[in-house]
Structures are given as C-alpha cells and as structure tokens.
C-alpha cells in the first residue's frame, strides 16, 4: 500500500497537431499515467519538443480527441508554435536554443 501523502500524482500529457490551412491545432492524443508516459516517449523518439505546463495540459485535457483547441487558447498555443519554430531555426544554424515562453494562462483568457 502507498500512503496518500507519498503517492506521486498521475502525469498527464496532451499532443497537438496543426495542419497548414486548418483553423486551429487539434488534440490528437491525451492521457494520464502510463498513457501519458507513452505519449511523451513517442514524442521524444520522434524528436518532437516537449513543453511542460501543468496549467495548459489541464485545460487541454478537457478537449475531446480530434477537436480543435478553443479560441481562448489560440494565443498561448501560437506562442508555443513560434517557440518551436525558433528552436528548429536555432538548431539548423547552430545558435543557442531560445528559452521557452511563459504559458501561464491569464484568467481573463479562460
């Protein structure tokens, strides 16, 4: 048995995909515990960058699979996509990787 105070909270993960011309990214995978670990593992194996934000993942977990993100998250996700673009550019040119954006969600956006 595990004491409640020593039990590690279940990890959560959400994967998004964006297709050129689509109105918004969509949720293509999400899960907790072992499923979350598998999502992260597959992303790492594919060389996909992973950004940790418990607050953002919590909001994305409420979106059904294959559904687009809501307009309230457009700005935050756009900032993450821009960060990923800068990472890819930095890797190609040998420059240092940029710091991740602040993905805290202002309460006025929810």
UniProtKB/TrEMBL annotation:
Pfam families: Bac_export_2. It comes from the Bacteria. This is Flagellar biosynthetic protein FlhB. Gene3D superfamilies: secretion proteins EscU. Belongs to the type III secretion exporter family. The keyword RNA-binding does not apply. Keywords: Cell projection, Cilium, Flagellum. It comes from Duganella aceris.
């Amino acid at each position: 048995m595990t004491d409640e105070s020593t039990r590690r909270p279940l990890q959560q993960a959400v994967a998004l995909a964006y297709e050129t011309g689509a109105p918004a990214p969509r949720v293509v995978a999400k899960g907790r515990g072992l499923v979350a670990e598998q999502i992260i593992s597959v992303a790492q194996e594919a060389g996909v960058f992973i950004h940790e934000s418990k607050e953002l993942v919590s909001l994305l977990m409420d979106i059904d699979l294959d559904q687009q993100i809501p307009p309230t998250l457009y700005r935050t996700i756009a900032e993450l996509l821009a960060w990923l673009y800068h990472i890819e550019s930095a890797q190609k040119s040998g420059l240092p990787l940029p710091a991740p954006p602040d993905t805290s969600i202002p309460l006025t956006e929810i």
